[in-house]
Amino acid sequence: MPNEHWDNLDKRDVPDQEVAERFQTDAEPDWSDPFATAATFLQALADPQHYQVALLNLIHPYTAASWGDFSEAAAGLASIQNWGLGNKPSRAEGRPDVAYAAILRNVDQTFQSQSDQVVMTAAVITLVWSAERQMWLVYSIGDYTGPEDIAPLA
Question: What residue ranges do the domains of the chain occupy?
Answer without folding.
Answer: 4-22+31-149
